[in-house]
Amino acid sequence: MKLEQEINATFAEAREEIEAAMESVGTTYFNDDAEIAKELTRDCVAKYEELLTKCEGDAGRKEKIRRSMGLKIEQLKAECNLIDTAHDD
What's the predicted TM-score (pTM) here? Predict the structure, then answer.
């Protein structure tokens, strides 16, 4: 349960930092904002994968976690990828 709370907190923080990075495109702050957002995204994904690993013996719980968190984790990764696209423009 604690790990799920950590994932949710890290997810929210990563989304905020992605937004900050997108707002700072073209400024001197962009590289730092982008790196923080990417680091938090990697941390969130790692915690999610750790949680799934801890549920290896409980297929029902693992599936429940995938249904409740999987889509938002994929969304987070896609949003983080937008940082590189925005920088390239």
Answer: 0.91
